[in-house]
């Protein structure tokens, strides 16, 4: 006769699956070179749909890493080629979604902070005139939020 599992066994399993999935996504985006072209920019398609809100923290972190890698390779001006990728959210949709999420920086494993960091990396792709303003202001805002988090937790 099979053993009965405790009532919260399903929760532990879903948490384990989530943790493994998050780690796999981050490992794929940071360690497997050929995955850059597979994941970038297609992961951006998952930023705006509401049903993926709980996945935004790892998604933003992976996208931020991929975008920074593209910038290091000299692709700063054309990080997101909207003309070649019809399924990508518009710059307006990306900006709106990331700003709305960042309005609650400590919710959902600090997804608001991750959203701000991604927005900072993508600012030129959102709109070129944001470059000077956002490259100065967004890092200060992230620093302030992270400092407040330390005060709130400590």
TrEMBL record:
Residues 2-148 form the MROH2B-like HEAT-repeats domain. GO terms for cellular component: cytoplasm. Pfam families: HEAT_Maestro_2 (PF23210). PANTHER family: MAESTRO HEAT-LIKE REPEAT-CONTAINING PROTEIN FAMILY MEMBER 1, MAESTRO-RELATED HEAT DOMAIN-CONTAINING. This is Maestro heat-like repeat-containing protein family member 1. It comes from Cathartes aura. The lineage of its organism: Eukaryota, Metazoa, Chordata, Craniata, Vertebrata.
């Amino acid at each position: 006769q099979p053993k009965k599992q405790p009532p919260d066994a399903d929760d532990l399993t879903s948490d384990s699956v989530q943790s493994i999935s998050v780690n796999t996504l981050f490992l794929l985006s940071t360690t497997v070179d050929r995955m850059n072209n597979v994941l970038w920019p297609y992961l951006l398609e998952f930023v705006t749909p509401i049903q993926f809100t709980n996945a935004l923290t790892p998604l933003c972190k992976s996208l931020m890493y991929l975008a920074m890698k593209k910038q290091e390779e000299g692709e700063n001006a054309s990080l997101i080629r909207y003309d070649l990728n019809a399924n990508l959210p518009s710059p307006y949709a990306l900006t709106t979604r990331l700003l709305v999420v960042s309005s609650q920086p400590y919710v959902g494993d600090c997804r608001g902070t991750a959203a701000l960091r991604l927005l900072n990396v993508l600012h030129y792709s959102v709109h070129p005139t944001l470059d000077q303003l956002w490259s100065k202001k967004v890092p200060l805002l992230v620093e302030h939020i992270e400092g407040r988090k330390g005060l709130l937790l400590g």
